[in-house]
Design brief:
Blueprint (H helix, E strand, L loop, with lengths): L3 H9 L20 E5 L8 H11 L6 E5 L1 H10 L4 H10 L2 H4 L11 H6 L9 E4 L2 E3 L3 E3 L2 H10 L16 E7 L4 E5 L4 H8 L4 E3 L2 E3 L2 E5 L1 H4 L3 H7 L3 E5 L14 H21 L7 E3 L14 H14 L1 H4 L6 H10 L13 E3 L7 H8 L9 H12 L4 E11 L2 E10 L5 E11 L5 E11 L8 E9 L1 E12 L5 E17 L6 E21 L2 E19 L8 E16 L10 E11 L9 E11 L9 E12 L10 E3 L13 E3 L1 E12 L11 E13 L11 E12 L2 E10 L3 E8 L8
């Protein structure tokens, strides 16, 4: 830090710097070579291969301009990154994770993880000012922006892009005015992020009150920008996708995409027509490599390298002398960055109602060294609540102190959000059930981050549940949650063998509850609750049973304690992690009810990480157990088995009792390419299961377990996981299943 004045003075002494390091307003020399990097999505990784050849041949670049992916590569190169460093970044990034805004599931708060077990679609709509509003992009770009912040952290105090090791420009499009926007100053990371906001895929950014999308719409190969920067010889790399062939235009989406591509192609051709005899055009032969195939980055880099090799006869004429090259190398390096201590933390409250909540989560790090990776994880934990479109940060200098400005932006399609869900079970034997659900969530009700969530059901379950979630304290690790539920549910009851249906009840449940919990880390929660309500069983068909008489209303009051651990990486087809729930329910007349019982529940699902070279194979080991310790036989103490992966071969919930246990091992394999970004995951699998239900603890014996198994095909659809399976159980029971739902079969 003490050396900074001397360094600034040295940089201002431009007479000692080579021409390519001088500002554009200085008169360019014959050695000033401009590099133009076009947009093309994943195809833009080819730019790195071209730059590798330029450096090998000692060709110094004095100006860089880029659009979309070209702005990322160009911006990193201008900031001092070497080609090999960019090569490593592109080929080692987890692109699937980068194009998902949410943090890794293990880092999400427990409340957000709970939502994964509610069979809701991963699509959200909002209600604002009397209108239904949807997100402006499939991806909000949260992780991409934070990645750019970290990669470009050494340029945090650079405002003028001419002050980078190579002067740089990024091109975006003002979608409101319909004109290009050229960034030559401002926030480097945000400028690059704006340049690659592909409409429909990435949400637009807002800079200086301009709504910005991908620069490729207006200037995909910014030759004109480079001319304005003062370069007199150009190396232009065009990685744009070719137009689709006639036979490929077989649907409205393809035709619409072709229309946009044709307009972009026409603009690009006009730019390329301005190239002179001293300019060099490089067009890597990327063939069928798609704009979204970021998993093929290494392949694209190699193709770019080959294209530059083919242009060597022209490129070598631009090679610098040894002294000129040494000067370029000495100047082209990343700026020194001293992390220092975080002296202060501020939260910009202009675009959020929860500035206090965000500040409380991050203030414990004031006075500690700045760690961008740790800050990313902390921001990810806050973002994982699901209430924000974006959470950004900037370093700030205040006198001799350096601090962090946090910039949260609430979802503009909120604060009232809705999600829908769908569940279907059909055993192809005449019994089918469906469940449609809708969830309405009002967020940021107060500055401490309160939420009010209501769920409606129709189908085998009908009714409504509502809960008010209020976090407290530093880090919001403590919460209180009052709730109510009005629900009717169909219960088919079978004989002890599970073969013959005896009756069907409509269970009406009503309750008021209060839950309090403590979740000091993202994977663990301690819970206590009190619930007062009543259950009424109405016999619809058949004859009454011991636990379900023809007409009975039970008033109950139950105090519960429990704990949850959830480190699964995915709630639908997990590849690693552990989920355990332990709960103890105490029904007491002294609390105001009619039921006296003690019921213990255990749910455990473990997917071990074997560290195998082939990560397609996974094993889920599961346990479900419930026991009414004093053999109480009421509505409240019953548990059910039967259905796919829940003693496969039996009909859904065809076995019931106040004692139950189920153990299972499920093996499943993912097909297709694991690194493909826009693919539909398909799984094939099989299960082995053992379990039973009993009406008395004295009946629980190992030799009374029922053994079952299944084979299935699972597809991760936009509606959630869809399973087609065949189950067989001991005694010759078998069934074919078509069902939506989770592989974990969570409790409803």
């Amino acid at each position: 830090m003490r050396c900074r004045p001397a360094l600034i003075a040295l940089l201002l002494w431009t007479g000692s710097l080579p021409a390519w390091a001088q500002a554009p307003h200085a008169a360019p020399t014959a050695s000033c070579i401009g590099l133009v990097l076009g947009g093309g999505g994943a195809r833009g990784a080819a730019h790195i291969g071209v730059i590798e050849v330029l450096e090998r041949e000692h060709i110094p670049i004095c100006r860089v301009a880029g659009t979309s992916m070209g702005s990322i590569v160009g911006g990193l190169y201008a900031a001092g990154y070497k080609p090999q460093e960019m090569h490593n970044i592109i080929t080692t990034l987890d692109w699937n994770d980068l194009f998902s805004d949410d943090p890794a599931r293990e880092e999400m708060p427990m409340r957000r993880k709970d939502a994964d077990y509610r069979y809701l679609l991963n699509f959200e709509v909002g209600y604002k000012n009397g209108h239904i509003v949807t997100p402006a992009g499939v991806v909000q770009g949260q992780k991409l922006l934070l990645l750019l912040r970290r990669l470009l952290i050494s340029t945090w105090d650079v405002h003028d892009f001419d002050d980078l090791s190579i002067p740089f420009r990024a091109v975006a499009t003002d979608i409101v005015a319909g004109k290009p926007v050229v960034f030559g100053s401002g926030d480097l990371a945000l400028s690059i992020r704006s340049s690659m906001s592909v409409p429909g895929a990435f949400a637009p950014t807002t800079v200086d009150d301009q709504l910005l999308v991908d620069g490729g719409l207006m200037d995909n190969v910014p030759i004109d920008v480079m001319r304005n920067m003062g370069a007199d010889r150009l190396i232009v790399v065009d990685v744009g996708s070719p137009l689709a062939k006639r036979e490929q235009l077989s649907n409205p989406v393809a035709v619409l995409n072709q229309m946009v591509s044709a307009l972009m192609d026409e603009k690009t051709r006009r730019q390329l027509d301005t190239l002179g005899p001293n300019d060099i055009l490089i067009r890597p032969a990327l063939g069928d490599l798609g704009a979204g195939e970021f998993n093929r980055g290494a392949e694209a880099i190699e193709i770019g390298r080959a294209a530059a090799e083919a242009a060597l006869p022209k490129l070598r004429a631009l090679a610098a002398s040894p002294q000129q090259w040494d000067d370029f190398v000495a100047h082209h390096r990343q700026r020194q960055f001293d992390p220092g201590l975080i002296a202060f933390l501020k939260v910009d409250a202009k675009h959020t109602d929860t500035a206090t909540y965000v500040a409380e989560r991050l203030e414990p790090d004031v006075g500690k060294p700045f760690d961008p990776k740790k800050l990313e994880e902390q921001i990810g934990g806050i973002y994982g609540r699901g209430n924000y479109q974006q959470i950004d940060y900037r370093l700030r200098q205040d006198g001799g102190d350096r601090g962090v400005l946090i910039i949260p932006t609430d979802k503009p399609w909120g604060p009232l959000y809705g999600k829908f869900g769908f569940q279907l079970d059909d055993d192809f034997a005449g019994r089918s059930e469906y469940l449609i659900s809708a969830e309405l969530n009002a967020t940021n009700i107060n500055r401490y981050g309160a939420e009010w969530r209501s769920t409606l059901w129709a189908g085998r379950i009908g009714g409504i549940a509502s809960e008010f979630y209020q976090p407290f304290g530093q880090g919001a690790t403590v919460y209180a949650m009052p709730s109510l539920l009005l629900r009717n549910e169909d219960f088919p009851l079978f004989d002890n063998t599970g073969d013959k249906q005896l009756s069907e009840y409509r269970l009406k449940r009503r309750y008021l509850g209060l839950e309090a919990g403590w979740s000091p880390i993202s994977n663990w929660r301690l819970v206590t609750s009190f619930t007062h309500g009543q259950d009424t069983g109405d016999l619809r068909i058949g004859v009454p049973t011991e636990a379900f008489p023809s007409s009975q209303t039970n008033r109950y009051s139950v105090a519960s304690v429990g704990t949850d651990w959830d480190s699964l990486d995915n709630a639908q087809f997990p590849s690693r992690g552990l989920h355990v729930s332990l709960y103890y329910d105490m029904y007491r007349p002294s609390l105001g009810g009619d039921v006296k019982a003690d019921v213990a529940h255990v749910i455990a699902d473990w997917v071990p990480d074997f560290g195998l070279a082939d990560s397609r194979y996974h094993v889920l080991l599961g346990l479900r157990a419930s026991s009414a310790l004093d053999n109480t036989n009421t509505f409240e103490t019953q548990s059910f088995l039967g259905g796919f992966l829940n003693l496969s071969g039996f009909a859904e919930r065809s076995l019931y009792g106040n004692q139950s246990v189920l153990g299972r091992a499920v093996l499943y394999r993912r097909t297709g390419r694991l690194d493909a970004l826009f693919s539909t995951p398909i799984y094939i699998g099989a299960s082995l299961e053992a379990g039973n239900t009993w009406h008395d603890k004295s009946q629980v014996e190992l030799n009374s377990l029922i053994y079952a198994g299944s084979m299935f095909l699972g597809i991760q659809t936009p509606l959630g996981p869809l399973f087609l399976g065949y189950g067989y159980a001991q005694g010759g029971r078998n069934s074919v299943y078509l069902t939506f739902g989770s592989l974990l079969r969570p409790r409803q």
